[in-house]
């Protein structure tokens, strides 16, 4: 017959007596190694456990650990925590009490533990809670404390590795806010470690819809700032623009002028730096027309100027006006990853202006000479040809260059079907105009006849 199948025997009174005796013995001897102290309580714990009295067992376990804490015998505390938790058929209630005592000691600011002792105690409690669903909240907390200790010691790699092993999204004992906060810490440490791939994978555990809840606004801002740290090194300006736009559309940010200024100006800047695409163009127009952003853009002339330039079919001069050029180059968002990245952003802005100008020219000309195109762009012929070739390679433009003649053709050749459709469309429009004209002539004639008869 197993221990769990035996009937429960109430050992509460017996446990209280043994705990009182052990305390008295400790007051006399002041020695935890006295057989009448810890050893006697261990025997008492065994009897309570074999009697299936979980509450009494927990009380005895907690009493042993409290005696160790009172004497600041940390080695005894750690050893007994491990011993009691691993005893055969130990009850969930007792293990929960053991872990609670360990956490209480770790959070007790009145008694300072050295880092080595704290780390050993944390590792012991992590082992105790490993695989126990009823202690998942405590395990998550202990793992985070161990990770924080490693980070404080300067071992960021170990801190990140410790924390990433916790699949906190599966823990039912934690609230939604606690889970998101935990995952954001995992992402932060992975970025600090330099493991951007794993940081991105971890970020996917956070649902963007969840971040829109009112009580998670601070975590939303924190999440998108971490994503900005990731994307700035991935050369992904459009993703950065979306991150800052999400930050801007946060209530707490709207209430702080410095925050929304930074978020909105960064949105405009990274949209200007983004490769032209329907999504980028659409977002530019949405930002300009947004009821919340439009009035605020009036206070950010450089941001509004950038968006207006790239949404208007006109050639843009580069460099920009001195005021706007200086404001763009001094923007804090371009200085977050060092001088090399800053220089890359400056080169990208020049490239985007040139690409915009080429698209504008292609919209007005079917063909023109390379010399004229270079003159319009303010570039040499070779540089203009290079940019056109790059845009064609990226499928951002249709063009053919006749080098012997020095001519570039932007008009895409039409298939016979397309020519026929265009011709039919033109004939239809012409017949419609003829019909309208005849109707107006007849109307005028009838009105003239009535006037004569009158």
UniProtKB/TrEMBL annotation:
Keywords: Proteasome. Residues 241-415 form the PCI domain. Gene3D superfamilies: Winged helix-like DNA-binding domain superfamily/Winged helix DNA-binding domain (1.10.10.10). It comes from the Eukaryota. InterPro entries: PCI_dom, PSMD12-CSN4-like_N, PSMD12/CSN4, RPN5_C, WH-like_DNA-bd_sf, WH_DNA-bd_sf. Pfam families: PCI (PF01399), PSMD12-CSN4_N (PF22241), RPN5_C (PF18098). GO terms for cellular component: cytoplasm; nucleus; proteasome regulatory particle, lid subcomplex. PROSITE patterns: PCI. The keyword Hydrolase does not apply. Belongs to the proteasome subunit p55 family. This is PCI domain-containing protein. It comes from Pelagomonas calceolata. The lineage of its organism: Eukaryota, Sar, Stramenopiles, Ochrophyta, Pelagophyceae.
């Amino acid at each position: 017959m197993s221990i769990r199948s035996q009937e429960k025997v109430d050992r509460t009174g017996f446990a209280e007596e043994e705990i009182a005796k052990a305390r008295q013995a400790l007051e006399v001897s002041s020695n935890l190694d006295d057989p009448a102290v810890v050893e006697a309580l261990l025997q008492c714990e065994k009897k309570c456990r074999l009697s299936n009295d979980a509450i009494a067992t927990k009380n005895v376990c907690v009493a042993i650990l409290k005696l160790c804490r009172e004497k600041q015998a940390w080695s005894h505390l750690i050893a007994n925590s491990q011993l009691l938790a691993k005893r055969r058929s130990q009850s969930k209630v007792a293990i929960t009490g053991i872990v609670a005592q360990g956490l209480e000691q770790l959070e007790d600011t009145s008694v300072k533990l050295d880092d080595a002792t704290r780390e050993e105690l944390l590792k012991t409690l992590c082992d105790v809670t490993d695989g126990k669903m009823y202690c998942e909240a405590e395990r998550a907390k202990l793992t985070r404390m161990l990770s924080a200790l490693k980070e404080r010691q300067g071992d960021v790699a170990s801190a990140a590795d410790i924390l990433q092993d916790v699949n906190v999204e599966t823990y039912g004992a934690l609230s939604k806010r606690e889970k998101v906060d935990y995952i954001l810490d995992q992402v932060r440490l992975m970025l600090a470690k330099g493991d951007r791939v794993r940081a991105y994978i971890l970020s996917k555990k956070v649902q963007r819809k969840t971040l829109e809840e009112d009580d998670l606004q601070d975590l939303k801002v924190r999440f998108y700032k971490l994503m900005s740290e990731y994307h700035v090194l991935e050369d992904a300006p459009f993703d950065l623009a979306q991150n800052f736009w999400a930050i801007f559309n946060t209530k707490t940010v709207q209430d702080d002028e410095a925050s929304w200024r930074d978020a909105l100006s960064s949105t405009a800047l990274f949209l200007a730096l983004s490769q032209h695409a329907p999504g980028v163009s659409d977002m530019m127009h949405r930002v300009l027309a947004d009821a919340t952003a439009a009035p605020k853009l009036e206070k950010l002339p450089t941001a509004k100027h950038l968006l207006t330039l790239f949404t208007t079919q006109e050639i843009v001069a580069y460099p920009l006006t001195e005021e706007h050029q200086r404001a763009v180059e001094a923007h804090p968002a371009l200085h977050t990853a060092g001088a090399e990245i800053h220089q890359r952003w400056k080169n990208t802005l020049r490239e985007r202006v040139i690409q915009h100008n080429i698209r504008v020219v292609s919209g007005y000309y079917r063909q023109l000479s390379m010399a004229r195109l270079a003159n319009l762009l303010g570039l040499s012929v070779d540089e203009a040809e290079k940019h056109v070739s790059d845009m064609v390679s990226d499928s951002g433009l249709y063009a053919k260059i006749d080098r012997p003649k020095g001519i570039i053709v932007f008009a895409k050749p039409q298939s016979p079907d397309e020519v026929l459709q265009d011709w039919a469309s033109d004939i239809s429009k012409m017949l419609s105009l003829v019909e309208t004209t005849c109707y107006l002539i007849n109307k005028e004639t009838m009105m003239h006849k009535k006037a004569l008869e009158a």
